TrEMBL record:
This is PITH domain protein. It comes from the Eukaryota. InterPro entries: Galactose-bd-like_sf (IPR008979), PITH1-like (IPR045099), PITH_dom (IPR010400), PITH_dom_sf (IPR037047). It holds the Pfam family PITH. Belongs to the PITHD1 family. Coiled coil: none annotated. One of its GO terms (cellular component) is cytoplasm. Residues 5-176 form the PITH domain.
Length: 176
């Protein structure tokens, strides 16, 4: 896709998959035979037959750390019309959250997913809240039909890495 055909906001956004620190990714309340890699890992998440499914109830708490600081622009959460996620709370840089304390912290953003979102339409996050993200916690609070099991087919995060120093910008100082 050329830069001209992409919208201005989307132009520089990349799939942040390669910046995920896989050794520290966690998902609470996942069904062990339908676990997070089904929705998050390349290849698996493109297969609609593979789902991340909740276990004891409809809630899922997903912790995704990055191996470098990123700016999060948007998130795609695909799921089936009935059991796909509905209310999704996003927390930037909030570690060690559990179901017992998830309501103790204000989310950085809240998304209520529509049918279009469940089919792959990205949710644009409150960009100002996601400028220096070292980790993202995704709390799936409920699903579309209120059933006991939430199903997620795909989670994709889009944004950019944070450049620590822009060397080009530093050279303009010698103007006297």
């Amino acid at each position: 896709m050329s830069a001209e055909s992409a919208s201005t906001n989307q132009r520089n956004q990349v799939d942040l998959l390669e910046f995920i620190d896989w050794s520290s990714v966690e998902c609470l309340n996942q069904n062990s035979s339908h676990s997070l890699p089904n929705a998050l890992k390349q290849g698996y998440r493109e297969d609609d037959g593979l789902n991340l499914e909740s276990d004891a109830d409809e809630q899922l708490l997903i912790y995704i750390p990055f191996n470098q600081v990123v700016r999060l622009h948007s998130i795609v959460i695909k799921g089936p019309e009935e059991d796909g996620p509905k209310t999704v709370k996003l927390f930037a840089n909030r570690q060690h959250m559990g179901f017992s304390n998830v309501d103790d912290f204000p989310p950085s953003d809240i998304a209520v997913l529509t049918e279009d979102n469940l089919k792959g339409k990205p949710v644009i996050v409150k960009y100002v809240k996601f400028q220096n993200v070292r980790s993202l916690t995704i709390f799936i609070e409920d699903n579309q039909s209120g059933s006991e099991i939430s199903k997620v087919q795909k989670i994709a995060l889009y944004g950019t890495t944070v450049e620590t120093t822009d060397m080009k910008g530093l050279k303009k100082i010698d103007e006297h």
